[in-house]
Design a protein that fits this description.
The structure is a single chain. This protein has one domain. 36% of the residues lie in helices and 18% in strands. The chain is built from nine helices and eleven strands. A hairpin with a 5-residue loop joins β5 and β6. α3 runs parallel beside α5 and α5 crosses α6. The chain starts with 6 loop residues before the first strand and ends with a strand. It comes from Brevundimonas aurantiaca. GO terms for molecular function: DNA-binding transcription factor activity; sequence-specific DNA binding. It holds the Pfam family HTH_18. This is HTH araC/xylS-type domain-containing protein.
């Protein structure tokens, strides 16, 4: 990577981790823009390790506070605003929506809209600087050891519901009691309700359609209609809800990590094997 050049790269997990981990990604920016980045919910919790300067996250008081160099980011229901404080280099594990419960060892709802300090848990983790492949391999080895010492499972009721939502298929009819039971399972294994997860998936599909693999750009309205929105006002409400701004404002203001995640992670692609 040359001086000042951004780098974003994704790696597919090995088969043993695939039920739990969606992708491992790395990002570096030696000279990042000091602008505030808006990160939208994507339906997946993450484990993030900083090799460079940590990001500063905007709190409820409006002030920016440094994030820990190793953190677990639970499900998000609102936008995350953060800004770099120096040269960036990080490696991150994006779990499946329901894939982190046994790694975390506590109900995922306890991590919703929170970034949990993982510094102590990642003591001794030392991915090689400047080597995306080596960083991904280091996380694979570390996670494999974590899985071997734990009892990681997938809930056979929650996972099919997530798959149906991702495939844009309607939820099957359920009694009120069955629906409440499913919501309790989702609170434990996912951290958000089935209905909210579907809303987040629909919002993320806007970015899929806005950046087609053939390079043909679409208007936000066209992308929103293809993602499943009825009209522009409905999509605009979700932009306010999940990003805190309009689609036009986001496209004009966002650079660096926020744009890399939106344009790369959510369009159809095949990550490299780690």
């Amino acid at each position: 990577m040359t001086s000042g050049e951004e780098r974003y790269q994704e790696f597919a997990p090995p088969a043993a981790l695939r039920p739990f981990v969606r992708v491992i990604w790395t990002y570096a920016a030696p000279d990042p823009s000091p602008t505030v980045q808006r990160i939208a919910p994507d339906g997946c919790p993450e484990l993030v390790f900083d090799l460079g300067a940590p990001y500063a996250e905007q709190g409820e008081d409006g002030a920016f506070h440094l994030q820990p160099p190793a953190l677990f980011a639970g499900q998000m229901t609102c936008p995350l605003a953060m800004k770099p404080t120096g040269p960036i280099e990080l490696v991150s594990v994006r779990f499946e929506p329901d894939g982190a419960r046994d790694f975390l060892g506590r109900p995922l709802v306890e991590a919703t809209d929170r970034r949990l300090d993982m510094v102590e848990r990642l003591i001794g983790f030392d991915p090689p600087p400047g080597d995306p492949t080596g960083q991904a391999e280091a996380f694979v080895a570390w996670l494999t050891r974590q899985k071997q010492h734990g009892d990681w499972t997938i809930d056979p009721i929650v996972r099919p519901e997530i798959d149906e939502a991702a495939a844009e298929r309607p939820a099957p009819p359920r009694s009120s009691g069955a629906q409440r039971a499913l919501q309790r399972r989702f609170a434990d294994r996912v951290g958000v309700s089935p209905r909210l997860l579907r809303s987040i998936f629909r919002f993320r599909r806007v970015f899929d359609h806005a950046a087609q693999p053939d390079g043909e750009a679409q208007s936000w309205l066209e992308a929103g209609l293809e993602a499943g929105y009825f009209d522009q006002p409905q999509m605009a409400r979700d932009f306010r809800r999940f990003l805190g701004c309009t689609a036009t404002e986001w496209a004009r203001e966002q650079h660096a990590l926020a744009r890399a995640i939106a344009s790369q992670t959510y369009k159809p692609s095949s990550p490299h094997a780690a």
